[in-house]
Design goal:
Layout (H helix, E strand, L loop, with lengths): L2 E6 L12 H5 L3 H17 L14 E6 L10 E8 L2 H5 L1 H17 L15 E4 L2 E2 L13 E7 L5 E5 L5 E4 L5 H14 L3 E3 L3
């Protein structure tokens, strides 16, 4: 999954200081540009029908504002980190040029009323380093019940779900069979779950 790092000064994309209600409803120019970058990069770097096939939802764009001690040669720097495939490597300069020209066109064709400071941008660069393939995966956090067992300060054993915070306590006078029934009911109510019993 390609990552795009956009480096520039945010003020290039700033809105006019005086904004009407209509202006407020429009998207911030920087947000518009990063969304456009995702489309541009997906189009330029895709390998149709292969592992490297991309659409704009596969692209992540990260923005960094130049720091006070940074040394930069260009007003806008775009770095596209993408997996190395033979098909991509064979014409990487052509792909880089597509990104560069499309980004340039987008910036140059914005009306001055949308982002007047874009006129201050004098140079733009695109770097497309290809990296050896790695693995990518995604997990949604706090969606699965995590059952955690522990002994309380009062000496009672508590079975607790870290997601919904519900719990059941083994009373001191509870028999093992009663506890097993209570535990089974608790776990059934939290299915599916991951046990994290210590």
């Amino acid at each position: 999954m390609p990552d795009v790092v956009l480096k520039t000064r945010e003020h290039f994309f700033s809105r006019p200081l005086v904004m009407t209600a209509a202006d407020m409803e429009k998207e911030h120019p920087l947000a518009m540009f990063t969304k456009q970058l995702a489309i541009i990069v997906a189009t330029a770097m895709t390998i149709p029908g292969g592992e490297g096939e991309l659409n704009e939802k596969d692209i992540e764009v990260e923005f960094h504002e130049f720091g006070p001690f940074d040394v930069h040669q260009d007003d806008v720097e775009i770095m596209v980190f993408a997996n190395r495939y033979e098909e991509r490597e064979a014409n990487i300069e052509v792909r880089r040029k597509i990104i560069e020209e499309a980004a340039q066109r987008w910036i140059e064709f914005q009306p001055e009323s949308v982002a007047p400071n874009l006129r201050e941008i004098k140079s733009l660069s695109v770097w497309t380093p290809l990296v050896l393939g790695g693995a990518y995966g995604k997990v949604s956090l706090w969606k699965t019940h995590r059952i955690h067992g522990h002994t309380t300060g009062a000496g009672e054993f508590r079975l607790e779900c870290r997601l919904c915070r519900k719990y059941v306590v083994r009373e001191t006078d509870m028999s093992l069979s009663e506890w097993n029934e209570e535990k089974a009911r608790f776990l059934a109510a939290h299915y599916p779950y991951v046990e994290d019993i210590v």
